[in-house]
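User: I'll paste a sequence; please echo it back and then give the predicted structure.

Assistant: Echoing your sequence first, then the prediction.
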Amino acid sequence: MLDTVDSTMAEAARRARHINCPTWIIAQNQTAARGRQGRRWENPTGNLAATLVYHPLCTPQVAAQRSFVAANALLETLALYVDRTKLSLKWPNDVLLSGGKIAGILLETSGHGPFVDWLSVGIGVNLAHTPESVSGAAFPPVSLAEHLPEPVSPTEFLAYLAGAYATQEMKLEKFGFDRIRRDWLKDAARLGDTITARTNQQDYTGIFDTIDADGNLVLITAKGPQAIPAADVYF
């Protein structure tokens, strides 16, 4: 475990070319943690800030499937501590506990050919503290400690998470993305309900039907099925 780092994602990028096997990087403090689209991620001491960096032999499209691998692994790990019926997966990269955001996932890759050179899977989990600076969020943050008599340490949680991620990775290798996709959909938040997906260009409102073979969100809108590769989801 590192004491202080700008971000575990930045540290993973610095170390990526030198590692020979999948490597988890964990830090007690981050000075420049970030989430999707460069958004600031608050990481109080006691919460999990970790990044897995490795060299999968795959295209960028297949590398992106690891967001669902990570989500499944996170839910299975959190279910060791709380009732799994209180957990749900929010497309594209969040885990909810009783409707509040408890964890987020961020993927980064590097590559110049048809295959990625390396993949980083960044994971933040509110274990001990609920971030206080987040206001007006559609899904306000919550922490695991709110549901337990004592907080879980980041190292303990990561030990279980690393095993769960390895299991999901093996499922992906043996059975393909369809198995990961089906497992994810079993715990998907608001599947079958009307939701809104907000992109940089426009908003789409429709029934959350599924995620397709590429991980796109599929909404049944007034104009028919709409596959959305990237958006913020509201419901």
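DSSP finds five helices and twelve strands in the chain. The chain has a mean pLDDT of 93.
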